[in-house]
Design goal:
Layout: H1 2-30, H2 42-50, H3 52-55, H4 65-71, H5 73-81, H6 101-104, E1 124-125, E2 133-134, H7 140-143, E3 160-163, H8 175-180, H9 194-198, H10 202-207, H11 236-253, E4 266-269, H12 270-286, H13 294-308
Antiparallel strand pairs: 1-2, 3-4
Helix pairs in contact: 4-5, 11-12, 11-13, 12-13
The protein binds heme C (HEC) (6 copies).
């Protein structure tokens, strides 16, 4: 009798052990939905290795609290998990990463295909402004980092604005604000571009597209649905480029911009400081030669030129 009970206990233990092993095997097999002989991962690694996200030009900035949320991939993931904004991150990341696969995707959280999910697609409250929300579908992921860090200061009682450093300006990557028609200086009223309203996934549609390109450069196939396969639609980019050159020359002549293209520290009439801000915003930081918001870009440049002539 006792032997039979022992035997049954043994059989039971064996069954439990076997079932355990089977589930371990099943879990191991799920790794191969990604880790297999296709280019699923390597095809993206190749594109990323050409992008500054992947080369990590400025990843070391991630060691400072004020920069970590956008410049370290690891700090970005932690920030998103804690529901914080980049200006609320309190500590730098001692071991910052590039913007790698784990920055944007939920890699190795369930170990299934579901881990390709984006870390966040929630609308983004642009923190340099009051009540400006970027709600551009999957492009919201990008807008967390590609948003300005500051708006221009208000003019003082003498209608002057101080240019306080050679890094003065909205900071790099204000593309989300440009798409919404905010972030420029002066009296120019902007509104969300048709691109931000008509293209559901905004940044992702034009910079990744249906082929899931991972160089993050803009892709002409993203325009084909509505225009030709070209960025310079109706010569708009060329027109914006000419306005940028004209405004840059005027700013240099007035001594607000140095030959290397850096702002010159000083106190200037508000309209001139605004022209300088908008030059930096468009030419140095936005980088789309007007495509993100053609009417707003053109209006800002023209107002700047008028203020300096
Ligand atoms: C959703 C797809 C996916 C699944 C499922 C997946 N991985 Fe990965 N794995 C990745 C990606 C993406 C990387 C990072 C590649 C890179 O950094 O270039 C990675 C990296 C790795 C690495 C290299 C070291 C590291 O952590 O970067 C190992 C080892 C690894 N995975 C093991 C596993 C194992 C074991 C499983 C199953 C338990 C698994 N993976 C499931 C996508 C996946
Ligand atoms: C975690 C923050 C973060 C996220 C999320 C992010 N970026 Fe970036 N992006 C950066 C940083 C930081 C740089 C500059 C990298 C460097 O120089 O080290 C950059 C650079 C770029 C560049 C290159 C700009 C140039 O001057 O060459 C493009 C294009 C770009 N990002 C597009 C995107 C798009 C599209 C998305 C969304 C799919 C996105 N980014 C998501 C932080 C981010
Ligand atoms: C809100 C997110 C955000 C914060 C916070 C932030 N950056 Fe950036 N930074 C970016 C993005 C996005 C880019 C890339 C912009 C582009 O190329 O269009 C960038 C680019 C840069 C670059 C240029 C890199 C290159 O390769 O040209 C430097 C330098 C830089 N940041 C320094 C800093 C420093 C220093 C801090 C902290 C004091 C900081 N950033 C905070 C988002 C941020
Ligand atoms: C800057 C953010 C960013 C980085 C870094 C990034 N991805 Fe992506 N990835 C995206 C976005 C956005 C999409 C489009 C998702 C969509 O349309 O659902 C995407 C799509 C994909 C897809 C297609 C997923 C699907 O559901 O069909 C794969 C596979 C992928 N990425 C792999 C990688 C790998 C591997 C790496 C690292 C070598 C990587 N990604 C790095 C943002 C990023
Ligand atoms: C209508 C399509 C479209 C949308 C939407 C869009 N972009 Fe762009 N973007 C472009 C084009 C086109 C360029 C200019 C490319 C060129 O002239 O080579 C550009 C340029 C850029 C650059 C400068 C690249 C460089 O090499 O200097 C960055 C960074 C960038 N976009 C990020 C973003 C982010 C982030 C978003 C969303 C907040 C976004 N873009 C939305 C089409 C788009
Ligand atoms: C979903 C449709 C759609 C997509 C996709 C799209 N655009 Fe547009 N685009 C528009 C609309 C609508 C206008 C406004 C046309 C007008 O006012 O005459 C416009 C206007 C423009 C203008 C200004 C043209 C002018 O004459 O003022 C440029 C430049 C432009 N788009 C570039 C691009 C580029 C580059 C891409 C791809 C990276 C792209 N667009 C993708 C819908 C789109």
């Amino acid at each position: 009798m006792q032997t039979r009970v022992r035997l049954m206990a043994l059989v039971f233990t064996l069954v439990v052990l076997l079932a355990g092993t089977a589930s371990v095997i099943a879990q191991d097999i799920s790794c191969t939905v990604c880790h297999d002989d296709t280019t699923l991962i390597t095809g993206k690694q190749t594109g990323l290795s050409e992008a500054v996200h992947g080369t990590g030009e400025a990843y070391v900035r991630g060691t400072s609290a004020g920069c970590a949320g956008c410049h370290s991939g690891g700090a970005f993931s932690a920030m998103v998990a804690q529901g914080l904004r980049p200006d609320q991150v309190e500590a730098g990341d001692p071991n910052p990463t590039r913007q790698d696969c784990r920055t944007c995707h939920a890699i190795h959280t369930t170990n299934t295909e579901a881990d390709w999910a984006l870390e966040t697609t929630a609308p983004v409250n642009l923190y340099a402004f009051e009540n400006v929300i970027y709600d551009g579908g999957k492009g919201n992921l990008c807008a967390n980092c590609h948003q300005p860090r500051r708006a221009i200061d208000a003019a003082d009682p003498n209608d002057n604005i101080a240019v306080t450093s050679t890094h003065w300006g909205p900071h790099h990557g204000p593309q989300s604000a440009m798409l919404l028609g905010v972030g420029g200086a002066g009296d120019v009223a902007g509104k969300p571009s048709f691109h931000s309203r008509m293209i559901a996934d905004t940044c992702v549609a034009c910079h990744i597209g249906p082929d899931m390109k991972h160089t993050f450069e803009a892709i002409t196939s993203g325009c084909a649905e509505c225009h030709g396969e070209d960025f310079d639609i109706d010569g708009k980019q060329a027109e914006v480029e000419a306005l940028i050159v004209q405004l840059g020359d005027l700013l240099k002549a007035k001594g607000l911009l140095d030959e290397a293209g850096h702002p010159v520290v000083g106190i200037y009439p508000a309209a001139q400081a605004s022209a300088l801000w908008n030059y930096i915003f468009i030419s140095i930081e936005d980088g789309s030669l007007g495509v993100h918001n053609p009417p707003y870009t053109k209006a800002l440049l023209e107002a700047g030129i008028a203020a300096l002539q």
